[in-house]
């Protein structure tokens, strides 16, 4: 039963994160800003050209990408400031970053429902054989 609980929790977690990522206009705007900044930072590199996307785990690394001019400035801060300036200026006092919590995003990325299902099936065989 415990394994089934974790399997259901993993599937629900992945489903919730995917819903937030695919249905929210705010998330689409944030992802567009991140993509635009990434393309800008890679500008001048003929090998990379303009990207059509990026790996979702990149979102967890935005705070680690620092400005060469000031170590206090990182890509997360710049992205947030750009989003606020363009889309949330009037509601800034109530502003919340519209991405799923980074901890949930990390868990969803690392969740392996297929492996959990395999473990559950193996345990059921063992328990059923007794």
For the record, give the distance between the C-alpha atoms at the N and C termini, rounded to a whole number. Answer: 16 Å
- Uncertain segments are none
- The number of distinct helices, counting runs of at least 4 residues, comes to 5
* Rg value: 20 Å
Would you tell me the structural class of the helices and strands? Answer: mainly alpha
Portion in strands: under 5%
Mean pLDDT level: 77
Morphology: elongated
Question: How many β strands by DSSP?
Answer: 0
How can the largest sheet be summarized?
Answer: none
Helix content: 55-70%
Order of helices and strands: HHHHH
Salient structural properties:
130 residues, mainly alpha, 0% strand, elongated
Explain what the structure shows.
The chain is mostly helical. The chain has helices at 2-23, 25-41, 75-88, 102-110, 113-128. The longest helix is centred in the N-terminal third of the chain and has 22 residues, at 2-23. The chain is elongated, with a radius of gyration of 20 Å. The model has no long low-confidence stretch (mean pLDDT 77).
Task: Give the SSE layout.
Layout: H1 2-23, H2 25-41, H3 75-88, H4 102-110, H5 113-128
Helix pairs in contact: 1-4, 1-5, 2-3
